[in-house]
Amino acid sequence: MTIALDTATMLAQLTQLGAIGHDAGDGRTRLAFGDADKQGRDQLVAWMHELSLDITIDQIGNIFGTLTGSDPSLAPLMIGSHIDTVINAGMYDGCYGVLAGLAVLRALRSAGIVPRRSIVVAAFSNEEGVRYQPDMMGSLVCAGGIDVAQVLDVIGTDGTRLGDELARIGYAGDLTPGVVVPHAYLELHIEQGPLLEYHATQIGVVADLQGISWQQITINGVANHAGTTPLAMRHDAGWAAAAVITFVRQLAQESGSTLATVGSIQFSPNAINVIPQTAVLTLDMRDPDDQKLSAAEAHVAMFLQTIAAQEGVTITSQRLVRFPAVHFDESLVAEIAQATAELGLSQRQMTSGAGHDAQMIARIAPAAMIFVPSQAGISHNPAEYTSDADLIAGATVLLAVVQRLSR
Ligand code: HGY
Ligand code: MN
Ligand code: MN
Questions:
Q1: Buried b (16+ CB within 10 A) or exposed e, 343-352
Q2: Residue nearest to atom 1 of ligand 1 (CA)
Q3: What pLDDT score was predicted for residue 129?
Q4: Cα separations (Å) of 222 from 216, 242, 266, 273, 280?
Q5: Residue 254: exposure state from Cβ atoms within 10 A (0-12, 13-18, ≥19)
Q6: For a pocket test of ligand 1, which of 93, 135, 321, 369 has the largest count of ligand atoms closer than 8 A to its C-beta?
Q7: What are the angstrom distances between the C-alpha of 240 and each of 179, 218, 303?
C-alpha cells in the first residue's frame, strides 16, 4: 500500500519553525532552554497534539510524540533529531529530521495505518551544546552517558544554571530519561557538508560518525602597556592564543584527516592599548579515527606547555567533550541503502562530520542516519539551504525505511 507524505505541510512547518527565534543576522537563534527554544518547543508540541500523538517529556526536557502501535509491548521505533540551534543558525539543522518524522506519522495516520510497533518522534534537548556543554546532551542523558542530576547543575556560558532555565521554560518533565529504549533509531538530517552536492548524489547513507573533542583553553599572562613594554618583557596571552590557533591549523593540515576549530575566544581586559592579561579559547577537534584524535589532543597538550614556557604565561585546559567515533548499525544502514535504491534515488555511503543525537542513541539501540545535500556545504549559518526536492526525497526514504522496519 503506497502512503503519501503530505510534503506541503512538512515544508510549511519547517518555514514556520525557522521563523521562531529570528535574529538580527537574518538567521534564527534558539539556544537550549532559552525563550526562543521554549517557543519552538511549544510549536512542536502543538503540532504533535494535532496528530493526536501521546506526548511525554523527560527530566532533561526531551520531547517524545508517540503513535501507539497495535502491540505496545514491543519496543518502539524512534525517529527524530533536535530543534535547538546554534547562534544565527540555518533553518534545517535538526528541525528537518523532527518535522519529517511528524510527516511520516501524519502519513500513517491519514492512511489509517496502525503499525504493530509504536513509532516515536523525538526532539532531543540541547543537541548544539552552545549555551550548556556538552552537546548532544539530551540524547546523551537518554543513553546513560551522563547523569541527569549532574546535567541540571551545569552552568551555561551566560552564567545561568541549566536546571533553573529548564524549569523556567516549563519543560522539566517527569519521565525518567532512557526508560524508552527504542527497537531502532533513525535520524534524517542535512549533511551540513559539501560531499553529496559535490558528487551530485541525493541521499547519504551514514554508516559512521567521527570522534569529537572539545576543550576550553585558558591562558594567563600579564596585562601591560602596549606602548612601553618591550617584546622581551611581555607575557602576552593574546599572542600565545594566536600561536595556539596557528598550531592547530598546521596540525590539522599535516594530519590529513583531523579537523581543528577555535570557534570562540575572549581577551581580557580586551582593550586596544593593553597587552591581554587572559585569553580564553575553545578548541573543537574531530577525526574519524579515534587514535588520531587522541594523538592530536596529546600534540596540543605538549604545544601548550611549550608556548607557556616560551611566553612566560600559564596555560590550563579543561576538557568539555570527548565522544568516540561511532560505527552505526550495519543492518539498519543496509535497510536505508535498500530503500533508497528501491526509490531510484542516488546514494553514497558516508561518515558524518557533525555530531548528532544518533551517535548517543547508538549506545543503547541500533541507530543509523540518512543525509540530504546541503547547498555549497554550508551549515550553522543562515545561508544553510537544502532544496525542497532533496528534502522530500529524504523524507520519502525515511518513510520507506520506517515501513520496512514496521513490517
Ligand atoms: O557540534 C556538532 O557537530 C553538532 O552540530 N552539535
Ligand atoms: Mn544537528
Ligand atoms: Mn548543528
A1: eebebbebbb
A2: 355
A3: 97
A4: 20, 16, 15, 13, 14
A5: exposed
A6: 135
A7: 47, 10, 11
Residues comprising the chain, all counted: 407
Asked whether 384 lines ligand 1 (CB < 6 A), one says no
The CA-based dihedral angle spanning residues 329, 333, 336, 339, taken in that order and rounded to the nearest 10 degrees: -110
The ligand placed nearest to the CA atom of residue 86 is 3
Angle between helices 35-50 and 95-110 (to 10 degrees): 10
Walk along the chain (407 residues) in steps of 10 and give the mean pLDDT of each run: 89 98 93 98 98 98 97 95 98 98 97 96 98 97 97 98 98 96 98 98 98 98 98 98 98 97 98 98 97 98 98 98 97 98 98 97 98 98 98 98 90
- Cα 11 to ligand 3 centroid, rounded to whole Å: 19
Give the contacts of 268 (CB within 8 A, at least 6 positions apart).
Answer: 276, 277, 278
Report residue 328 as a C-alpha cell: 552505526
238 lines ligand 1 (CB under 6 A): no
Residues forming a β-bridge with 349? 205
Tell me the ligand closest to 189's alpha carbon: 2
Residue 177: φ, ψ to 5°: -60, 135
Q: pLDDT, tens digit, for every residue of 158-170?
A: 999 999 999 999 9
From atom 6 of ligand 1, which residue's Cα is the shortest distance away?
128
One-letter amino acid for residue 267 of the chain: F
Return all residues near 112 (Cβ < 8 A) that are at least 6 apart: none
Residue 200's CB is within 10 A of a number of other CB atoms, namely 9
The C-alpha atoms of residue 258 and residue 10 are separated, in whole angstroms, by 36
Q: Check: CB of residue 117 under 8 Å from CB of residue 20.
A: no
Residues 358/368, Cβ–Cβ less than 8 Å: yes
Is 127 touching ligand 1 by the criterion CB < 6 Å?
yes
135 lines ligand 1 (CB under 6 A): yes
pTM of this structure:
0.93
Q: Are 209 and 325 in contact (CB under 8 A)?
A: yes
